[in-house]
Amino acid sequence: MEKVDRAQFLRLGAVGALGAAGAGLIAAGPAVAALPAPTPIGDDIGFFGFAVVAELTSRRWYQETLRVKGLGRSVRSTLSAAGEAKGAHVRRLNDVLRDGAVQPSDFAVDFPKGSFDTRARALALGRQLEGLLVSTYLYGTAYAQDSSSRLLLGRLQIFDGQLLAWLGSLAGVSPVPGLPDPIDTEAGGTLLDRYLTTPSFR
C-alpha cells in the first residue's frame, strides 16, 4: 500500500454507555471478528490517515484533561477509559494503513495555551475535537469507496458521537436539534492542523 505522509492525508478530500460502546468497538469477540477487514480504495486511504492523527490528538486531550481540577472520580474514570479506547482505535487504524502507518513521533500535539486552566476551557476544546471527528467520519461513511472502510468509519463515528454527547452533558450544554454536517478531510485537516506541529518545523 502506498505510504501517505501527514501533509498529504490531511489535504486529501475524498458515561456508563461509553464503556460498553468502547468494548463493542475494540473487542475481538466473535461478532467483531466476523466483520470484513477494510480494504481502502484510492482516496479512501486519506480517511484513515486523518483518523489516526485525529484519534491521537483527541487521546492527548483525554490524558491532559485528567489533570484538570474540579472533575469527580467517575468523570476521571470515563476520561481514562476513553483515552485507552482511543489508543486501541489508533492501532486498528494503523493496521489498515500498513506501511503507511502514522507514528506519534511524526507530529506533536500543541494545544493553545490555557486550554486546561479551567474545566470549562478543557470541555470546550474536547467538544470541538469530538465534533470534528464526528463530522469527518460522517463524510467518510458517505464517500469512502470501500464498504468495509465505511463500516469502520461509521463505528468510530458512533463512538465519538457518544463521547461528544457525554462531554456536552458535563458542560451543561443542551443537545442541539438537527443533523450534523459532514466535513471532508481537506477541511477537517485544516481544522485539526491548528493543534499540530511537525518536528522539522519546531
Describe the overall structure.
The structure is a single chain. The chain is mainly alpha-helical and 202 residues long. The chain has a single domain, classed as Ferritin. It has 8 helices and 2 strands, in the order H-H-H-H-H-E-H-H-H-E. The protein has a two-stranded antiparallel ribbon with strand order 1-2. Helix 2 packs parallel to helix 5 and helix 4 (44-65) runs parallel beside helix 8. It starts with 5 loop residues before the first helix and ends in a 5-residue tail after the last strand. The relative contact order is 0.20. Mean pLDDT is 86; it is low at 11-30.
User: What do we call the CATH topology?
Assistant: Ferritin
Nearest-integer average pLDDT: 86
Q: What does the overall shape look like?
A: globular
| Number of separate helices | 8
Q: How are the strands of the largest sheet arranged?
A: 1-2
Give the oligomeric state: single chain
Structural class, by secondary structure, is mainly alpha
Low-pLDDT regions = 11-30
- Quote the beta fraction: under 5%
CATH superfamily: Ferritin, core subunit, four-helix bundle
Q: What string, H for helix and E for strand, traces the elements in order? A: HHHHHEHHHE
Q: Count up the domains.
A: 1
Q: In this structure, how is the largest beta sheet organized?
A: 2 strands, antiparallel
Overall number of strands: 2
Radius of gyration: 16 Å
Helix content: 55-70%
CATH architecture: Up-down Bundle
Q: Distance between the terminal alpha carbons, to the nearest Å?
A: 30 Å
Provide the CATH top-level class. Answer: Mainly Alpha
